[in-house]
Structures are given as structure tokens and as C-alpha cells.
Amino acid sequence: MKHTLPIIFILLTFSNTSIAQNAELKLSYSCNTATSPFGKVTVLDYSYNGNIIGYVQNGYSNSISPITFTGSLKDSLQRFFISPVQGAQGRELFIYLYTFFITENRDEAGEAGHFKLFMRFFTNTDNGRYTELQALDTIYSARALSVHKVLLRAVSEHLCEIAQSVSKIEFIPSSNTYTYNELVHLDSIEKLKIPVYNAPAIKKGVFHNYHQFELNIPDERDIYIDSSPRGNFIAYTMHGSHKRRFNFDKEIYAVCDGTTTLVRMQNVLSPLKKENFDFYFNVKQSSFDAGQASGSYLMFGLVGYAIGAATSKNSIYRYKINYLTGNSTLVSITDGR
What we know:
Blueprint: H1 4-20, E1 23-24, E2 38-45, E3 52-58, E4 63-68, H2 73-81, E5 91-107, E6 110-124, E7 130-143, H3 147-167, H4 180-184, H5 186-191, H6 195-198, E8 205-207, H7 210-215, E9 223-227, E10 233-239, E11 242-245, E12 254-256, E13 261-265, E14 268-271, E15 273-275, E16 278-284, H8 305-310, E17 315-321, E18 328-335
């Protein structure tokens, strides 16, 4: 029996050491790009991730570790799409990267991994302007033992498939074209065409979906918004001098009382703030009921669930509204204590 405790201690030490290790994405550039028509590739990275491009769930403790990437993600992506021929004089490819994120979670069925990717591709026309070839907004999922290893290996394969697919798109001239300078500032140009981004105020009423919100045309309702002593927000509809708590169903995107706008995700209402031509909102982890998906769920559905499963109840999630889709992108997690 005198050897039992040392053996247990060694096992626990090994387990904790392995849990603390981060996962790293290493890309393989072995795909065939010999037929790529692109002699120049430019990538604009709006993914907000820095060198952390996801999270992996560890062991029985369900703790999380970041998935890191060493180097420049945009420079690495260029290598998948550019022609390998030195000095090739092919067309230009302009890539907007909005989301590049990997997560893993465990459930009753085992380990599930997800790779969320949102990219837009533009190419030059004969008159020196640029037009959009394709928009790709997808989630690649996998199930396996040590699924994050499977998913990390598959990222390069997915990028090769995308690069080959984009290289085969038949170029069809479009009347909707941009100069190089316009393309670099495309997000600002496109927002100028979205009424809610240019309105002096969001109109009072109920927005059932993002399309209503971007047009700033709500269903007219007499809305009153109040906050509880704990800092939670509550929306009411007014019936004369009486107020009735608003019944949020799954078709509601946001409500506004003319002063405060609340965006609704699950059962959580968060005040929306406009900063530098973008909309942001914060969610406290403690805002979610026990058994309910965490704040990270808002990243892109269940893909982000693993993050919130292990973050502090004081964590504050900061999100940015994607002006193209109305979905939310996680831009930071901070400790709210």
C-alpha cells in the first residue's frame, strides 16, 4: 500500500499537465494549385481572433485550452489560392475573412468539433475594377475520439477544396463593381446602404428579424424598457396606463422604446450600442439560467458552447453584429469582477 499514493500523484500530475497544453493549428500546403488563375492574392482579416483561432475541451474536467496559430493567418491563406508559378500574371483575388474559428464540445453522443468559416471572394475585371465571385458561410463538423486532432488536420483539406472550387468559378462580368480603394473599404461602403447604420436613431417598435432591423422598419408597438436592480433588462408593451411584460418568441430579433434597443438571443436581452459605425452588445455569463447554453452560444449557435462551459460566471462576452447577416461575432471575453 505504501506505493499507492505516489502512483496516484504521478497520474494526477500527468493528467493536469496534459490538460494545460494548448492545441496548435499547423497548415499543410500540399494541395494542387497548379491550375490556379490567380497571380496575386490579398486577404483582409476581420476575424478579430489574433493568434487564438478556437478552443478545445479537455478531459473530464471540461476545462478549455485555446487553439493557437503561429504566424500570419492572412499570409498563410494566400498560399492556398495563389498560383505556384513564380511571377504568374493571372487574375487578382481579393479575400475578405470574417470568421475563422474552431471549437469542440462533448455531449452524450461523444466529441463534436466544428470549424466555422465565413469568406467572400472578389476578382479584377478587364477594366481594372473588382467584382464578387462568391460568398462562403459554412460550418464543417466532425465526430471522433480526440476530435480536435481530426478537425485540425482537416482544416487544410477544407481550404484546399475551397481554393480549387474558387479557381474553377467562371468569371462573369457584373455591373456591381468596385475600385481597389472601394474594395479595401467595402464594409463602410456597404453599411452606407443599410438604413439602420445611417439613421440618427433606431425606431420604436418590434423587429421580428434582421431584415426589418437593417431597414429600421419595426412593427409599431408601444414599448417600454426597464432594468432590474440586478442589471437585467425587461421589455413591456403599454396598454393605456398599464404595462404588460413582453412575450418574446423565437421570431423576435430586437425591440426598441425609442431610446434603448435590446437585441434578443435565447432568453437574454442585451442593450445594443453603436460605436464607430458598428453595433455591439455585452452579455454576462450570469445572465443565463442553469442548464441553458452559455453566452458563447451566441457566437454561432452550439459551435461556441464549449467556451462558456468553462468560463467564469463573471465573464462578459462582447459581440459585434455582422452587418451582412445579422449574426453575432465574439470579439472579446473579459472578467467582469
